[in-house]
Amino acid sequence: MNYMNHEEPYSETYLQDILSSVKTIAMVGASGDKTKFSYGVLRVLHETGYDMIPVNPGLAGQEIRGLKVYPSLAAIDRPVDMVEVFRNASELPRIAQEAVAISAKVLWGQIGVTHPDAAKIAEDAGLKVVMNRCPKIELFRPFWKPKLHLTI
What we know:
The chain is an alpha/beta fold. The chain has one domain: 3-Layer(aba) Sandwich (Rossmann fold). Helix content is 34%, strand content 16%. The protein has 5 helices and 7 strands; from the N terminus they run H-E-H-E-E-E-E-H-E-H-E-H. The protein has a 5-stranded parallel sheet with strand order 2-1-5-6-7, with helices on both faces. Strands 3-4 form a two-stranded antiparallel sheet. Helix 3 (92-101) runs parallel beside helix 4.
């Protein structure tokens, strides 16, 4: 099997295809603390129209932005398209296995979250993988281009 090199930049079409096709995103490591980066990303993705599912065992049963927090990916009661990870990179292989187990289509590691074994686990199961990127940033990247005098 040909594995992607996640050290190299992803093509714009690869990221755009993912962000335009996924609807439901489970965020592992979601925080209710408005000063945390994960909260800001959750807020923007939710406001953009994604069905966001916060996952945090320490906050299970509570709500973040009116969204029920789940203790684990396995506890989610509906299909998940993408698993976005705001956790230490060392946890990514375990989370990749959980993402495969719930039939997610994409495993996305936030900036700083990358692990070659996790990529292999996910890719072997047919998931698309993105690592060391922020979906909030990638979502709005096309809008920067006119200011940079680039074609869209």
